[in-house]
Structure formats: structure tokens, C-alpha cells
């Protein structure tokens, strides 16, 4: 069983986060923050400055993004326990953060692992 868990962890970690936050040409500001977050067939839009869109917790999601300067690769994983069930899910963020282009995706072993790693951002 431990061997299986190690193999699954290796497969889940092999994908690694893919992130790009590139400089924009215009002035930077929170009003220039418009992101689309997706996983499985679920899609939400998030704006920050002021917080809005159809994300169920836009204020908390924007606060999380401010803490990591709009770069989801900087998210710190939580400490929840997840079952060793391999049902891969890919989380994606794309749009602009303070005028900079953002494109990020990460594949997790299951939705519990995604929720643990991304917190409020993908709680929809």
C-alpha cells in the first residue's frame, strides 16, 4: 500500500505547476485584475478592485491573490487529510492581475488535494 501511495504521489507531483505572470504595458492597479478560474467543467470569473464576478467568495479569493501577488504558483498548501484516490483534476487560472498576464495550471491527484493546495480560490 505504501508503494502505491508513493507511486501516485510521484505521478501527481511529476506534472508540476505551470505558471506565467508577465509584465503588461499599461499602468498597474487592482482594477486591472480579471481572472477566469476553471477545473473539471466548472468555470468562474473573478475581478478584484473591487472584488466581484461570479466566484462565491470573491473578497477572500482576491485577498489570497493579493498575498501571492497574483501568482498561483506561490500558493502554500494547507494541512487537510485527503484519501489516496487517484482521480486527476487540473486547475487553471488565466487572465490579468494588476495589468499583467496570468496563465497557470496544475494537475492534482483529486479534488481534495486541489482544495488543500489552493484554498478558497477553487472553492466553487
Structure overview:
There is one protein chain. 25% of the residues lie in helices and 31% in strands. The protein is of the alpha+beta class and 124 residues long. It has a domain at 46-122: Subtilisin inhibitor-like (Subtilisin Inhibitor), CATH 3.30.350. The chain has a 6-stranded antiparallel β-sheet with strand order 1-6-5-2-3-4. It is globular, with a radius of gyration of 15 Å. The N and C termini lie far apart (32 Å). GO terms for molecular function: serine-type endopeptidase inhibitor activity. Keywords: Disulfide bond, Protease inhibitor, Secreted, Serine protease inhibitor, Signal. It is found in: Secreted. This is Subtilisin inhibitor domain-containing protein. Belongs to the protease inhibitor I16 (SSI) family.
**Radius of gyration from the alpha-carbon trace, in angstroms:** 15 Å
Order of helices and strands: HEEEEHEEH
The biggest sheet, with number of strands, parallel, antiparallel or mixed sense and barrel status, is: 6 strands, antiparallel
At CATH level 2, the architecture of the domain at 46-122 is 2-Layer Sandwich
Shape: globular
Structural class: alpha+beta
- Strand numbers in spatial order across the main sheet: 1-6-5-2-3-4
> Could you tell me the number of beta strands?
6
The H-level CATH homologous superfamily of the domain at 46-122, spelled out, is Subtilisin inhibitor-like
What is the average per-residue confidence, as pLDDT, rounded to a whole number? 82
Amino acid at each position: 500500500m505504501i508503494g502505491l501511495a508513493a507511486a501516485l504521489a510521484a505521478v501527481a507531483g511529476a506534472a508540476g505547476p505551470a505558471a506565467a505572470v508577465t509584465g503588461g504595458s499599461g499602468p498597474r492597479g487592482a482594477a486591472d485584475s480579471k481572472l477566469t478560474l476553471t477545473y473539471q467543467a466548472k468555470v468562474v470569473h473573478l475581478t478584484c478592485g473591487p472584488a466581484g464576478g461570479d466566484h462565491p467568495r470573491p473578497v477572500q479569493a482576491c485577498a489570497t491573490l493579493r498575498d501571492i501577488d497574483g501568482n498561483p504558483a506561490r500558493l502554500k498548501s494547507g494541512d487537510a487529510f485527503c484519501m489516496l484516490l487517484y482521480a486527476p483534476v487540473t486547475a487553471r487560472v488565466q487572465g490579468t492581475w494588476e495589468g499583467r498576464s496570468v496563465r497557470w495550471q496544475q494537475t492534482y491527484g483529486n479534488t481534495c488535494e486541489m482544495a488543500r493546495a489552493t484554498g478558497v480560490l477553487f472553492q466553487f
